[in-house]
């Protein structure tokens, strides 16, 4: 009688395609514990081009920094992180999603990073000039930004490669904001 597990032999590119649909980086790393082949597959650079930490769980600032220090982070082109603003816990809503030190590490350790998505993030301590200069796309959906941050959006010398920015549902941005007028004049 045929064993369905041992008779099912798929090529590495097929398994990489399957692993790319999992989405959660934590699960992909756990699959690397199955065997040497799975370890090698889970560390493939193609799986780490678009890293999405919004699928299953929110990452603390400490865990995000630990991930950025891992060798797999150098392959990242896009990083998506969800903050704690929409969290049920009042103490969690005050937690920072990113810090100036983390953004500096992103610039140093992730040379291919061009897209950064920070959803529901508390970033009132961050200035726009602290983000990596090579970013072409920024997404701040539902985030809390400082007024200085919004004012610096008008400066074309800050993030010169930036071509797309999403400020949907940003808490302190209104249609009457001078920052919004300046941002529109930058384009």
From TrEMBL:
Residues 15-53 form the F-box domain. It holds the Pfam family F-box-like. Gene3D superfamilies: Ribonuclease Inhibitor. This is F-box domain-containing protein. The lineage of its organism: Eukaryota, Metazoa, Ecdysozoa, Nematoda, Chromadorea.
């Amino acid at each position: 009688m045929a064993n369905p597990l041992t008779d099912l032999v798929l090529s590495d590119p097929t398994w990489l395609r399957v692993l790319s649909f999992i989405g959660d980086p934590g699960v992909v790393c756990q699959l690397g514990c199955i065997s040497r082949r799975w370890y090698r597959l889970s560390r493939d650079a193609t799986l780490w081009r678009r890293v999405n930490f919004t699928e299953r769980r929110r990452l603390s600032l400490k865990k995000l920094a630990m991930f950025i220090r891992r060798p797999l982070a150098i392959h990242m082109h896009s990083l998506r992180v969800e903050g704690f603003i929409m969290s049920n816990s009042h103490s969690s809503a005050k937690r920072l999603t990113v810090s100036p030190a983390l953004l500096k590490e992103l610039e140093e350790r992730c040379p291919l990073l061009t897209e950064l998505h920070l959803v529901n993030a508390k970033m009132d301590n961050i200035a726009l000039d602290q983000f990596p200069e090579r970013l072409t796309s920024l997404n701040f959906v539902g985030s809390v930004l400082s007024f200085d941050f919004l004012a610096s959006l008008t400066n074309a010398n800050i993030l010169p490669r930036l071509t797309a920015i999403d400020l949907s549902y940003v808490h302190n941005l209104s249609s009457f904001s001078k920052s919004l007028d300046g941002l529109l004049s930058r384009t």
